[in-house]
Design a protein that fits this description.
alpha/beta, 434 Repressor (Amino-terminal Domain), Rossmann fold, 3 domains, six-stranded mixed sheet, elongated
Length: about 325
Amino acid sequence: MKRTTIKDLARQFGVNPSTISRALNNHPDVGEDLKNRVQTLANQLGYRPNRLAASFRNRRSRLIGLIVPQVNMFFFPSIIKGVEDIARAKGYSLIVLHSSDSLEREIENVQICFENNIDGLLVALTRETQNLEHFDLLREAETPIVFFDKILEDPNQQAVVIDDFEAAATLAQTFRETGCKRIAGVLGDPNLNITQKRRSGFEYALRDYPAELRFVNADSAAQSRVKMQELLASGFAPDGLFTMSDETLLGAVAAIEGNENGLPKCHIACFSDGLLPNYLNVHMTYVQHSGYEIGQTAMALLHEQICRETVLPVSNIVQMPTTLIRI
């Protein structure tokens, strides 16, 4: 028979697992009525606390786990530096693990973090991740978790993101201003929440604008170049280019510059950490979102939870500011 967990009890009451944990541990922040109802249901379902997980939680390691889907020259190095700067200032060491965008590797990394008795975890999810159940191992040990950048729509999470929908809509407006009529969009994996929001925001802002939109999906700079080359070879000659990351920007620009017919009047608008656009010999508009600041903010939020400095709501989604820059 499947062992009853804190998450099972939380689902019954429609609250955060941390609320159930506080109720079971007679925390003063939880009302007596809820404490009694939680304890009654726990007894009925045969809930028994995970003593191993609890013992792990009670021994501080001063270690922070950081799981990222990939480590390349774009965005995530800035994230790692932002996290590490705050972690070191607070007296923590950092374990950086990459999942290679594989759910299996992500699950293995969660296990590694548990076995190393981390004090908290920061995660950008893989493209294969459909739910957060594999994080229950840490959640039952009351190990705080903060998700960032690539997240799921889950009510029981703390996360640091940007407003992807609104930022994409802002970029879309620049195509109206420049009068583009044939716009190519190079997006990431279509299953990712971040991709869906950015595409939705872009399309919504142009819903009543008479332009032809063509989207392709790419997971790397190399694939972005190939997909853009295929689009150009099909006879579609864009006068506008929208990309959702530095990686897709690099590949798409390379394809355009290598096109025998050239596209000198192509307006480019993209998402960027801000470094790459200054090294490309093209004029563009980009929404700058700092990976370093996201890393700092995520680590600061995680530290608050570790120290229990604040009582966070069931869902706490921190939206970082962005800046529209024209070069």
